[in-house]
Amino acid sequence: MDRPSFTVGIEEEYLLIDPQTRDLISDPDPDMFERCQEVLGQRVTHEILRAQIEVSTRPYSSIRAVGQDLRYLRRTVIDVAGEYGMGVIAASTHPFAQWWEQKVSVGERYLMLEGRVQSLARRMLICGMHVHVGIEDRDLRIDLMGQVSYFLAHLLALSTSSPFWGGKDTGLKCYRLYVGHGMPRTRHPELFESWSEYQRHIEVLIGAGVIQSPSEVWWDIRPSSNYPTLEMRVTDVCTKVDDAIAVATVYVCLLRMLYRLKTKNQKWRSYLPFLLEENVWLAQRYGSTGSLLDLGKRSLVPFSELVEEMIEVLMPEAEELGCVSELQHIRQIVMNGTSAEQQVWVFRRALHSGATQEEAFKQVVDMLAHDTADNLG
Predict the structure, then answer these.
(1) Alpha-carbon distance 44 to 165, whole Å?
(2) If we measure between CA atoms, which residue out of 305, 191, 179, 323 comes closest to residue 251?
């Protein structure tokens, strides 16, 4: 078995806002999107709702390179949107926009999805970050999917950016997954022994006409249906680009570490979704401020301690890949708080200072717009 390429590519979804009202633009000028495509080509695409826009980096063998590309994509979309009087925020939910006021994007794919799942599609006012890592051998892709699933909760805890929904403080740091997991074929994948076993299960659904392709399986991590990659989908979109790059760094380093173990006839223990999803729930609820289950110890461990353990375990991979500073940045995420934690701080501080709820939410949107555009070079 040849060594995987471990190339890395990042997809991010953003929300388009009115800089005056701070609300979403439910039907943005299509010329703005066309202008983005003139500059970026197919690396910028529609999402299911018109108020959303998605960008995709190229695949790279270095974290530094993918980070530079992601900065360029963000900067371009922000600049073009600004020309049309729009703002851009990287957040997995909008603080106060209402999902039923949004419009589904034009296109056969989106209309078909809406027809199949009805209001579940129309309420998908959520944005995520997906990270693709190149693993060319199919059986290895399935093997590593089962092992790295242990860490999906850790990746989510580092990325949370969706504490508000429809003008309410949900009490969660990641409300996005609550919405997204309402769709069929979501959450953790089952433990498959091989690529052929995975394919047999997918073919049951395709053969019965339930789905048309594997792309309609929306697990929190899945083999990509378009590329020879393992696509991590659990994370919120990070408001700060440095946080996004750090999360992608952790993911690729985890896969490289697990492959290193495999070459020594070792592996990370796999656990059933029952336990892994409990950890994801803890990450949804508390973000980086709480604790996660250490399933080996059978006890809760403060997430700040788990971050230090991850840095230590993944340091050999980070040194080999030349991304030590990007890995160590996850320590800053815990110290400074994720986007969700900072949004809640801004909101509560504004209320404490005498702002109305509407004014407080606008301050949150202003913070999101500022941090989305920060440090893009």
Answers:
(1) 26
(2) 323
Domain span including residue 281: 8-369
What is the C-alpha to C-alpha distance for residues 130 and 9, in angstroms, rounded to an integer?
8
Measured N-to-C along each axis, helices 303-321 and 152-159 cross at an angle, to the nearest 10 degrees, of 100
Position 375 in a domain:
no
d(CA 64, CA 377): 13
Specify if 2 maps to a domain: no
Residue 92 maps to a domain: yes
Say how many C-beta atoms besides its own lie within 10 A of residue 36's C-beta: 22
Contact yes or no for 57/70 (Cβ under 8 A): yes
The domain tally of the chain equals: 1
Q: Whole-angstrom Cα distance, residue 262 to residue 105? A: 44
CATH number where 85 lies: 3.30.590.20
In b/e form, how buried is each residue of 232-257, taking b as 16+ CB within 10 angstroms?
bbbbbbbbbbbbbbbbbbbbbbbbbb
How many Cβ atoms from other residues are within 10 Å of residue 365's Cβ?
Answer: 26
The string of pLDDT tens digits covering residues 62-88 is: 999 999 999 999 999 999 999 999 999
pLDDT (tens digit per residue) in 195-222: 999 999 999 999 999 999 999 999 999 9
Q: Is 44 within a domain? A: yes
**Distance of alpha carbon 264 from alpha carbon 266, whole angstroms:** 5
pTM equals 0.97
Asked if 156 and 243 touch (Cβ cutoff 8 Å), the reply is: no
Exposure string over 107-132, b if 16+ CB within 10 A, otherwise e: eeebeebbeebeeebbbbbbbbbbbb
User: What does the alpha-carbon distance between residue 55 and residue 33 come to, in Å, rounded to a whole number?
Assistant: 11
